[in-house]
Write a structure and sequence with these properties.
The chain has 385 residues and is an all-alpha fold. It contains 15 helices and four strands. The chain has one domain.
Length: 385
């Protein structure tokens, strides 16, 4: 049954996307580790974590694209789930430092020793174990999303009102995590990571593994999303997007469908955050900034709402542009570029990059098909011999 579920989401286009992601997962780390620097195909060491970060953003954008493009839920607070997954991974990495910290305490992280904490808070218990930390990566964002969605969807909060309260949620978390007495590093956050699963987190081999894990996770969740969209469940959530009242009227419990896809989306964002942190090397309350959640929506809009590949491409394109502009003299103008990009896409490419290209290809096929069938349907009279 599970195999049938996954096979439902695999077709020719899905196979192409999966093949590209798996090829990238293997070839980029291999080109970095095994090709000499003089080779034209060598991938510099700084590129591996940078593109790995882009891939985690692609997974984050995919999570928003699933709920916005197919269920009509516009979230302006998905950065909160991303950050919670990142903090869960960061807490595990902090527990691995042990006596190698600045203060050499075997249990307490350096910031707790600096703040004169006497014992490890209950929230940190168990994070020295990798399986427990990975469970929290999914459970914490998922539980928050479930509780939030339970009240919001059963209260039939929709549209702009839902978007506003999702933004209020992430802003409340931002304020809480900024406080030193919250137990998560205050405004400095968590950093100075040493190792993951016993391997140096800065080592090239570890960087390559994290890069590959990001690409594989993106391919895995892409297949899950395609399987959902092509299932009966997917047809219902699309109906909810297009006509929620009518879907409710014919007997579907709309709030249950919305809650399920919302919770899954939050878990995907948490996994993206967990893969992001060891590659970047820090997690702080700035990840809860509502502006980050708005930027995720821009990625989806640029790539193409209502598609699954579109959000991934949008995240890659926009973040490459961000890197290009913010590493030079044009850094102060990046927000103007981002705003102009969003306005331009909204006005001239309302379906985004992928949606517009798909429409053009479909139109070209419709034009060519009648021409190809013309001799069969309208045979020309033959000249007399």
């Amino acid at each position: 049954m599970i195999a049938n579920f996954f096979l439902r989401g695999i077709d020719r286009s899905a196979i192409l996307v999966i093949a590209i992601l798996l090829a990238v997962a293997v070839l980029v780390p291999a080109a970095n580790l095994y090709l000499p620097v003089t080779s034209p195909f060598h991938v510099p060491s700084y590129v591996v974590p940078l593109v790995g970060k882009y891939l985690t953003y692609g997974l984050l954008a995919l999570s928003v694209g699933l709920i916005w493009g197919y269920c009509g839920i516009l979230s302006l607070g998905h950065g909160a789930f991303f950050a919670l997954g990142g903090y869960a991974m960061g807490m595990y990495l902090m527990r691995q430092i042990g006596t190698r910290g600045v203060y050499g305490h075997p249990i307490l992280p350096d910031f707790m020793v600096f703040l004169n904490w006497q014992e490890l808070p209950v929230a940190w218990w168990g994070f020295q174990y990798f399986p427990y930390a990975m469970l929290m990566v999914v459970l914490v964002p998922g539980l928050l999303a479930f509780v939030f969605g339970w009240f919001a969807f059963r209260s039939r909060v929709t549209g702009v009102y839902l978007s506003i309260i999702t933004q209020a949620m992430t802003f409340a978390l931002l304020l809480g995590f900024f406080r030193n007495n919250f137990g998560f590093g205050g405004n400095n956050g968590l950093t100075d990571f040493k190792e993951i699963l016993g391997f140096n987190v800065q080592a090239p081999m570890t960087r390559g593994f994290l890069f590959a894990a990001s690409a594989i996770a993106l391919a895995f969740f892409y297949v899950i999303c395609r399987s959902i969209i092509n299932s009966r469940f997917g047809k219902v959530i699309i109906a909810v997007r297009d006509a929620e009242s009518r879907t409710r009227f014919i007997g579907y419990r709309v709030e249950n469908y919305k809650l399920a896809v919302w919770t899954l989306s939050a878990c995907m964002a948490g996994v993206a955050g967990a893969l992001y942190v060891p590659q970047v090397g820090i997690i702080n309350p700035g990840e809860f900034d509502p502006a980050n959640s708005i930027e995720i929506v821009v990625w989806v809009a640029v790539g193409g709402r209502g598609t699954l590949v579109g959000p991934i491409i949008g995240a890659l394109v926009v973040n490459y542009m961000k890197t290009y502009f913010t590493t030079g003299a044009l850094a102060p103008y990046w927000l103007f570029v981002l705003g102009s990009l969003f306005i331009g896409v909204t006005l001239f490419l309302p379906k985004g990059i992928v949606g517009t290209l798909g429409g053009l290809i479909g139109r070209e096929r419709r034009v060519k098909t009648p021409a190809a069938e013309a001799p069969a349907t309208n045979p020309q009279p033959q000249a007399a011999e």
